[in-house]
Amino acid sequence: MRANGLLSVWREERFALNAWLSIGSSYSAEIMANLPYDAVTVDLQHGMFDFETTLAMLQAISTTKATPMVRVAANVPGSSRRCSTWAPMA
Predict the structure, then answer these.
(1) What is the DSSP letter of 60?
(2) 39, 40, 43, 53 - which has most CB atoms within 10 Å?
(3) pLDDT digits (tens, 9 = 90+) for 28-51
């Protein structure tokens, strides 16, 4: 498993730069993640994505140095448990 770059930024007490994705596209996720962001968040609360689209977006982000994160749609244990397997905190 790769190191979590976002945690490194926080441990060094630096400001983190985060991108926010509301467009359900792995292509846009890859473009944003290749920009100099520390993290890229997929917004499931306001974006209308299904599981397969979200997974493809997280896979695209994971090919870069940016830390993939997910804002879950609701505070429901089932949905957050499903997302927690995508971007573990290391």
Answers:
(1) H
(2) 40
(3) 999 999 999 999 999 988 878 888
Task: Say which of 11, 15, 46, 77 is annotated catalytic.
Answer: 46
Q: Is 50 exposed, middle or buried (0-12, 13-18, 19+ CB in 10 A)?
A: exposed
Look up the pTM and report it: 0.79
The alpha helices in the chain, defined as continuous H runs, are 5-11, 26-33, 51-61, 77-84
Residues 77, 79, 82, 85, CA torsion sign: negative
Question: Is 69 a catalytic site residue?
Answer: no
Q: Is residue 44 a contact partner of residue 73, using CB atoms and an 8 Å limit? A: yes
Write out the DSSP string of 5-19: HHHHHHHTTPPP-EE
